[in-house]
């Protein structure tokens, strides 16, 4: 059964780190990462998701998800921006209709604001993305944290189930 786990959480929540640990323990799964695609195509992962680059990246995401299933993977982890509930609805709808996905699971990260900020600031080159302005970077991260907590993750956004992940617990599941 073609299954996608969609990561949901603010920047610095530990999504990518958790995904890498999950893949190390579960090589039968595959990862499609928006940030990796942005790095490959544009040389940086902090490009505004609401510019023309968004369409290019989405087409590449769909291509890679389909390729993973063609290669025989039954679980694909999709690590990409989806802060608004309507973005999650769009992603789940396209995964089902455009990629033939049968099950979409939300991996909702429940990392505290303090940990998100700490991890966010530890990322390679994050301050360079904000021209060295640490205070501005902190404001952006806090805004994202509030955005994610103001946009509930619900089954009617196209999910079969919602799994809550606390990356500080270091528990890998499926």
Give a structural overview:
This protein has 174 residues and is an alpha/beta fold. The protein has one domain: Rossmann fold. It has helices at 15-25, 34-42, 53-70, 85-99, 113-122, 126-129, 134-150; strands at 3-8, 29-33, 75-79, 103-109, 161-165. It has a 5-stranded parallel β-sheet with strand order 2-3-1-4-5, with helices on both faces. Helix 2 packs across helix 3 (53-70).
The CATH first-level class comes to Alpha Beta
* Whole-number mean pLDDT: 86
Rg, Å, rounded: 16 Å
How many discrete domains? 1
**CATH-scheme architecture:** 3-Layer(aba) Sandwich
Number of strands: 5
The ordered H/E elements are EHEHHEHEHHHE
Unreliable segments (pLDDT under 50, ≥5 consecutive)? none
CATH topology: Rossmann fold
By secondary-structure content and strand pairing, the structural class works out as alpha/beta
Strand content: 15-25%
The number of helical elements comes to 7
* Helical residue percent band: 40-55%
Tell me the strand order in the biggest sheet. Answer: 2-3-1-4-5
Features:
174 residues; alpha/beta; five-stranded parallel beta sheet; 7 helices
